């Protein structure tokens, strides 16, 4: 059997591992538009700061990963489309690669709105490794002293804090009335944004939109205006990072009978390539996983969730099924957290359709749990800064000079409440479908989040 995987991100890497656990001999080809081995796409702000080791960035082991799993890895091969009737994928330039089974795991691309001046140099997205490295080069060379981030979602906020810590004067422009609008509701989003602004001095323009970019060859200013206003003003800048969301690469199946996630009433796409619980598309020999696909979530609904954990999960499921072992996806998860150290935030599940909520305040954390018809629908948390004294006996600190006066002190002192805690909350309340009773509420209040991960401990722990 000949299997072709289009894409080289988390979903593809997980699929390779699962496939080889079942099938040791079939031909396995990976076509990647990028020239790098698979890397952690959620660590681009670490690349900009240059505080991530190669073994962590290339978390599957680099080139050795493909050798160990007997993969014909073909970097720099951008796939333009698939012809599932002829069972070939078509690479840019005209090359065709045939397959018996195919996995589409090409992810999503950064959406860049058609704003006047978008073609100027110095305007970039920060989604790929090459883009992150380019941003770092501009900053450390001294070319960039001021930056504007267009979009206040997780990636935009992480990049803003990163650049701020590198000494860049940063402004964030967000069209919604708060930052992290898809992660946090109005109350929590405003709390997060206000705290970030206060602690860092980052300028945050919510309820504003970009009118145009200005400059000769290189961007020099961003023209913005408040929504609903006719008066605009300018922010001088040396660089712009456009962080206005991503779109699934559904163009790969244009002209085929492979179905896309559509809003049936409006007749427009609302997600990626539609897959079943086996990650199989409407073509039984074509699978899809990761940011390119709309899979089935823990509630049994089709949703497009462009996050690292569900991409890995879906990739494993797809890999097993590609190899002929019938495995069902137990339901995609959508917990997330921003990797900012000044102020933390995270969420999981849904909150737009909730009919009730409770707020738990514990120390410097605010946790909000949302309900629909009495059942937990989602949660959010925001953690404002609280700087404990550094433990000078910590072996990590001994490697530093005795007097730490820079921002690293805050980073090292931050205990964090991020992705791990968000995942525990998601699995306890949403995947395990447990209720918010007095015991679990008290555990949240005491910040005993890890105990929730063990169902046998959730009742007797506080008796």
CATH class label of the largest domain: Alpha Beta
Number of strands: 27
Our measurement of the CA-to-CA distance between the termini, rounded to an integer number of angstroms, reads 57 Å
Main sheet attributes: strand count, strand direction, barrel closure: 5 strands, parallel
Number of helices: 13
Low-pLDDT residue intervals, each spanning 5 or more residues: 400-404, 410-416, 457-463
Task: Give the proportion of residues in helices.
Answer: 25-40%
Decide which structural class fits the backbone: alpha/beta
Number of domains: 3
Describe how the helices and strands are arranged.
Blueprint lengths: L1 E5 L3 H13 L4 E6 L11 H6 L4 H4 L5 H6 L3 E4 L3 E5 L4 E4 L4 E3 L2 E4 L3 E3 L12 E2 L4 H12 L5 E5 L3 H12 L3 E6 L11 H15 L2 E4 L1 E8 L3 E8 L5 E5 L2 E4 L3 E3 L11 E4 L4 E7 L11 E3 L4 E4 L5 E2 L4 H15 L13 E3 L5 E6 L6 E7 L2 E8 L2 E9 L11 H4 L9 H6 L5 H13 L6 H8 L3 H4 L11
What key attributes describe this structure?
463 residues, FAD/NAD(P)-binding domain, 5-stranded parallel β-sheet, disordered C terminus
Structure, explained:
With 463 residues, the chain is α/β, with parallel strands linked by helices. It has 3 domains: 2-107 and 248-322, FAD/NAD(P)-binding domain (3-Layer(bba) Sandwich), CATH 3.50.50; 123-244, FAD/NAD(P)-binding domain (3-Layer(bba) Sandwich), CATH 3.50.50.60; 350-462, no CATH class. It is built from 13 helices and 27 strands. Strand 1, helix 1 and strand 2 form a beta-alpha-beta unit. The radius of gyration is 23 Å and the shape is globular. The N and C termini lie far apart (57 Å).
